[in-house]
Design a protein that fits this description.
The protein has helices at 2-50, 58-65, 75-78, 156-166, 183-195, 213-225, 245-258, 269-281, 288-293, 296-312, 325-336, 347-351, 362-367, 380-389, 405-408, 428-438, 444-458, 543-555, and strands at 83-93, 96-105, 108-113, 123-126, 131-134, 136-141, 146-147, 150-151, 168-175, 201-208, 230-234, 261-265, 317-322, 341-345, 476-486, 505-515, 518-522, 525-526, 558-561, 567-571, 590-593, 599-602. It has 666 residues and is α/β, with parallel strands linked by helices.
């Protein structure tokens, strides 16, 4: 045995020595490698500490300069709670209210109803005694906007954070190119500013600040390739963004061709410019001069003119920030005339007035400067709310465009240099609930329509946005009608240092706000995430808008009367065309022309039999037979038997009708 062990030892001891040596060599190699890496790390830390401080590191700066949108992390990695069940609430849409539960998964509404079967692990939110409503859509914001020599206080993060705090889950901002700047270039600039910062979803309008064939071509490209379906034209800001009437007409025509919605800032810029000169010359330099230079009639005139121009080409028109009673009346009247026009009052015009411009504190007065201005008539907010409740005005925005007190002071001594803009993106929902629902002017369904649904329909985001339905985005607000809060600059989430609604108490507000399936306001606590939102493309030819346009075209065709024995319909077929008899008693031939100029010849009708019929009622306004009419007569006004010799009658005339004669009743 000992001899065998010695033999084996002679074999494995050399192997052990070799293995141990190899291990030692590997260990030394690892230690050397680790030491070298440690030295490099220390060197990098030392260099970073010795570098000059920069506002952002190189990686973030590179991302900020990139035109590529930020790639979002999948929702199930962003939050462990990607499944939500909202129970016991009243689900409110623009067309009704129901008691139902809502189940959300991966940012989409999966189920709406009662006794839902949902996976385990879902977060439960009890909405008992509360309304479950679609997230608000603010159709009018200006975030991170360069304007009047400065840039707005709210960027795309602080602005959308404030929006979420108030129950708005989607904003539509405005791309405003400089005069002569490419619309495509400006669009890309806005996308770069917004994509990395937005905390909620957003879409874009594009302003047309100058007019040329290049602009027309770029409008088509924006609609076709970049998700834009609305363009804004300015009738004010002369020498900066204002278009003249000819350019407006051509812009409306182009919007109609592209299936886009034409928007206008409606004020008479020529009058405003002259009024400003007169007021400054008279020594009026304070904020009150702003309202005095743009009186109510200047807004109403521009609204009327825009409606007339758009109607000539049957272009759908959208009036942004309706600020006065007379402007609202013009919109209401034009809608009654059948013109496709939509009016947008804003939070400011619905909740406060222009008496603030005469406040003795310059800072207070200047904080309210916006264009068009608030109106000093204190009955204006209630009047506009009545129009909104009755669908004379259709939806609401805010024109959220904030400037700090220091920025407003740029216009001290010259009101024309005060940056125009006020807050509202956070306060809009609560103010409309207080002034509309609590006051009894509208019910919760109308509230949803004017804060969300109508906007989604007009700008072709419905039903992805604007309703609570299976397949819709999970943008939901749990609205507590008993939640009472007082608006204040000390507690709002905007970056501006003043709030034009300071001190207004609202009864009703958001307890939970869910954006794309994520709880962004949790029991009143805001949990916004920078870059969480996405750009929402809006495609042209929104059915809600262009179905109305198409119907108008059917009944408002062109008519042209030719005097050589033919009647050609080319404009307004609603006008009855009565054929005139010729010498031989035959009716003239009607020649109907379609809108595109093609002619369709319609054979002349045989009026021989109709000429013998007895009618008790006149024809309708369109020339057709009155459906309340009858050919029955007790008199002798029947066809002459001699005229019917060629047409044998297959029936017998009954002289004593069933039930007896009716002559005894009268």
């Amino acid at each position: 045995m000992r001899r065998r062990l010695r033999q084996n030892r002679a074999l494995w001891v050399p192997f052990l020595r070799v293995t141990t040596l190899s291990f030692r060599q590997e260990l030394c190699s690892v230690l050397v490698s680790f030491s070298s890496h440690l030295v490099l790390v220390c060197l990098c830390v030392f260099l970073s500490l010795t570098r000059d401080d920069q506002p952002e590191n190189d990686a973030m700066a590179a991302r900020a300069q990139s035109t590529t949108p930020v790639r979002k992390v999948p929702i199930h990695l962003q939050s462990a709670q990607n499944r939500l069940l909202i129970k016991n609430g009243k689900v409110v849409n623009g067309d009704g209210i129901q008691d139902a539960d809502v189940y959300i998964e991966e940012g989409i509404i999966k189920q709406v109803g009662n006794n839902l079967i949902v996976p385990g692990g879902s977060r439960l939110i009890d909405a008992r005694g509360k309304y479950v409503i679609p997230g608000g859509i603010d159709t009018h914001t200006h975030l991170q906007l360069p304007f009047m020599g400065t840039t707005t206080a709210d960027d795309f993060y602080t602005g959308t954070r404030a929006a979420l705090a108030g129950g708005t889950t989607t904003i539509i901002d405005f791309v405003i190119p400089s005069k002569g700047q490419s619309l495509i270039e400006a669009y890309k600039q806005w996308r770069e500013r917004a994509d990395e910062k937005v905390a909620c979803d957003y879409a874009l309008h594009v302003a047309v600040t100058w007019w040329s064939p290049e602009v027309q071509q770029e409008m088509e490209e924006l609609c076709r390739d970049h998700g834009i379906n609305s363009f804004k034209m300015f009738m004010a800001y002369k020498d900066l963004w204002q278009l003249d009437d000819t350019e407006l007409f051509e812009a409306f025509e182009r919007c109609k061709q592209l299936g886009a919605v034409a928007q206008v800032h409606a004020e008479n810029g020529d009058i405003i410019k002259e009024n400003c000169k007169k007021l400054l010359a008279a020594g009026v330099t304070g904020p009150e001069g702003h309202e005095m230079s743009r009186p109510e009639e200047v807004e109403a005139e521009a609204v009327n003119r825009a409606c007339v121009l758009a109607n000539q080409v049957n272009c759908p028109l959208y009036i942004v920030h309706v600020m006065s009673k007379s402007a609202g009346e013009v919109v209401a009247e034009k809608r009654r005339q059948g013109i496709v026009v939509y009016g947008e009052p804003i939070a400011a015009s619905l909740a406060t007035d222009g008496k603030h411009y005469w406040n003795s504190c310059w800072r207070h007065a200047a904080a309210h400067v916006m264009g068009p201005p608030l109106r000093p008539d204190s009955t204006t907010p209630d009047y506009l709310m009545d129009l909104l409740a009755n669908d004379d005005l259709q939806l609401t925005g805010t024109d959220h465009c904030t400037f700090s007190s220091a920025q407003k002071e740029m216009g001290k001594g010259d009101f024309t240099k005060i940056p125009n803009g006020v807050n509202g993106v956070e306060e809009r929902m609560s103010l409309i609930w207080e002034k509309g629902v609590v006051s009894g002017k509208m019910d919760p369904t109308r509230f949803v329509a004017v804060t969300s649904m109508n906007a989604a329909k007009i700008f072709n985001m419905y039903p992805k946005k604007g309703c609570i339905a299976v397949g819709s985005d999970a943008d939901i607000v749990i609205w507590d009608p008993k939640l009472e809060h007082t608006i204040s600059a000390a507690t709002h989430h905007s970056a501006v240092d003043f709030n034009i609604f300071e001190g207004i108490t609202c009864r009703g507000g958001p307890e939970y706000v869910i954006a794309n399936g994520r709880v962004t306001v949790d029991e009143g606590q805001v949990k916004a995430v920078q870059g969480y939102g996405s750009f929402i493309p809006t495609s042209p030819f929104a059915p809600f808008v262009y179905e109305a346009v198409t119907e108008r075209e059917k009944v408002h065709q062109l008519i042209k009367v030719e005097r050589e024995g033919r009647i050609v319909a080319v404009r307004n077929t609603m006008v009855p065309v009565v054929p005139q008899a010729t010498s031989n008693g035959e009716a003239l031939e009607l020649n109907l022309s379609s809108v595109n100029g093609g002619e369709e010849v319609v054979a002349a009708a045989d009026h021989h039999f109709a000429s013998h019929q007895h009618f008790t009622r006149p024809p309708t306004s369109s020339g057709g037979r009155n459906m309340q009419d009858t050919t029955f007569s007790l008199s002798s006004e029947y066809p002459n038997p001699a005229d019917e010799s060629d047409n044998k009658r297959s029936t017998i005339r009954v002289k004593a009708p069933p039930g007896g004669h009716s002559t005894g009743l009268w």
